[in-house]
Design goal:
Helix content is about 65%, strand content about 15%. The chain is of the alpha/beta class and about 290 residues long. It has two domains: about 55 residues, no CATH class; about 220 residues, ATP synthase, F1 complex, gamma subunit (Pyruvate Kinase, Chain: A, domain 1), CATH 3.40.1380. Strands 3-2-1-4-5 form a five-stranded mixed beta sheet, with helices on both faces.
């Protein structure tokens, strides 16, 4: 049984931890508001960019000479997966949920005897994947030094992807991230960005009534727009991840603070009982000593 001094130290330690988790919850809550606003503002832009590309792709007369980023290589043998996670922990199941989604996709690719290549964006993703997929990871990227999510970081990742695609290092590129829904719920997503999927029935139906005329020709516009769209989709994913991370961290720290409070209560009861037992024992010893005289 723990001594009174040990219980005292443990209560003090748990209280200190509770103060830290409470402070982290407040910091996450402060960051969440801005991150949520950025994620919500980024969605319409990325969706509109996709819509424009869908319209342009429908207007291409010569499909065979369409930009390579749109039509792909014509094969699906080599898959490049971009796993977007955080550089910091203590955010609940945020990173684990993305990794779980990605692993299901990896297993499907490997079961089909296709080649898998992985680029991790965020140190936590690399830490969780290196044990099983170390030979498949071709590059790891981290933005620990960046204070805020910005387009320049997303553009760096976009350029790496495009450079590798132009060197024929892969056929299909898919990104994995968490979509922010609310503080409690973040939904793991997989999104194919190369070649760009244009067979989404809902989107095609919504665009069927809109007829646009473009100047210059569709091919020329797409050649300039498609690389920017890749960076835009990655930037959107990073914004969604940022909001999801802060929401998950806020929830995790709230739970940790509550659990610490419950533990303090239990330890305090245990301390009081031990103290009462020690006092009772001393009284019995005093009374027994007095009776012996």
């Amino acid at each position: 049984m723990a001594s009174l001094d040990d219980l005292k130290k443990r209560i003090s330690s748990v209280k200190s931890t509770q103060k830290i988790t409470k402070a982290m919850k407040m910091v996450a809550a402060a960051k969440l508001r801005k991150a949520q606003e950025n994620a919500e503002k980024g969605r319409p832009y990325s969706e509109k960019m996709n819509n424009i590309i869908f319209n342009l792709s429908n207007g291409i007369s010569d499909k065979e000479n369409a930009p390579k980023l749109l039509k792909g290589t014509g094969e699906e043998k080599i898959h490049l997966c971009i796993v977007l996670t955080s550089d910091r922990g203590l955010c609940g199941g945020f990173n684990s949920n993305i990794i779980k989604k990605a692993k299901l996709y990896f297993q499907k690719i490997l079961n089909d005897d296709k080649t898998l290549k992985i680029i991790t964006v965020g140190s936590k993703g690399y830490d969780q994947l290196k044990r099983l997929y170390k030979n498949n990871i071709i590059e790891k990227i981290s933005f620990k030094e960046s204070k805020n999510i910005n387009y320049f970081d997303a553009n760096k990742v976009g350029k790496i992807i495009i450079d590798r695609f132009e060197k024929n290092e892969f056929d299909v590129c898919t990104i994995f991230y968490n979509q922010f829904k609310n503080v409690i719920t973040q939904i793991p997503q997989e999104q194919q960005i190369i070649p760009l999927k244009t067979s989404d029935n809902k989107k095609q139906e919504s665009l069927s009534d809109n007829i646009y005329e473009f100047e210059p020709e569709e091919d020329e516009i797409l050649s300039n727009l498609l690389p920017k769209n890749i960076s835009t989709q990655i930037f959107k994913a990073m914004l969604e991840n940022s909001a999801s991370e802060q929401g998950s961290r806020m929830t995790a720290m709230d739970n940790a603070t509550r659990n610490a409070g419950e533990m303090v209560d239990k330890l305090t009861i245990q301390y009081n009982r031990s103290r009462q037992a020690a006092i009772t024992k001393e009284l019995i010893e005093i009374i027994s000593g007095a009776e012996s005289l």
